[in-house]
Design a protein that fits this description.
The chain is mostly helical. Helix content is 57%, strand content 6%. Helix 5 (85-91) packs across helix 6 (93-110).
Length: 171
């Protein structure tokens, strides 16, 4: 006996909280459901501004979303407060060193001539995404490579899964 499962009906995505979409992202990544993964990434991206930047970096690393990692690094670099030991441990010590280097570069670029550091001069950022991508090139290259299987064209809406009952219950 063969069972065929079809999903041809258009569906409307559920209105889930961010943590719900993270669960959808986890399952869709494990099962390579590309359309659902893309939708989860889109929904989560809308709420990333409310997350702690180190959590954004962690999430981007875990699910291979380069834009989230870059966005998280940008937030950490642009932050006025010092990087805590806890955050440095989450990000990684080498990456924390790169962040400090980029922060120093930002301060030097924004400082008025003749003064290296001024609290009022470091508003805004002169660090571009290309600077971040260059500083974290190795990590981002890995994320891009790991994400490649998930960036292929989405499958057609009509999917068919065929299996026999014997296959389901075999040891």
């Amino acid at each position: 006996m063969t069972v065929t499962v079809w999903n041809s009906r258009p569906w409307k995505p559920a209105d889930l909280p961010t943590y719900g979409w993270v669960s959808v992202l986890k399952v869709s990544t494990l099962w390579s459901c590309l359309e659902l993964r893309a939708l989860a990434i889109e929904k989560i991206s809308l709420d990333l501004g409310q997350e702690k930047p180190t959590n954004v970096i962690k999430l981007g690393r875990k699910y291979f979303v380069e834009d989230w990692v870059v966005r998280g690094y940008r937030s950490v670099i642009d932050a006025e407060e010092e990087l805590s030991d806890e955050d440095a441990e989450i990000i990684g010590w080498e990456e924390s060193y790169c962040i400090m280097t980029l922060r120093e570069m930002r301060h030097k670029r924004n400082a008025p001539s003749g003064r290296w550091f001024s609290r009022s001069s470091n508003r805004g950022s002169s660090i571009q995404d290309e600077d971040i991508r260059k500083a974290f090139k190795t990590e981002l290259s890995f994320i891009i490579a790991a994400a490649a299987p998930y960036n292929s064209p989405p499958s057609p809406r009509l999917t068919s899964l065929r299996f026999t009952w014997g296959e389901l219950y075999s040891d």
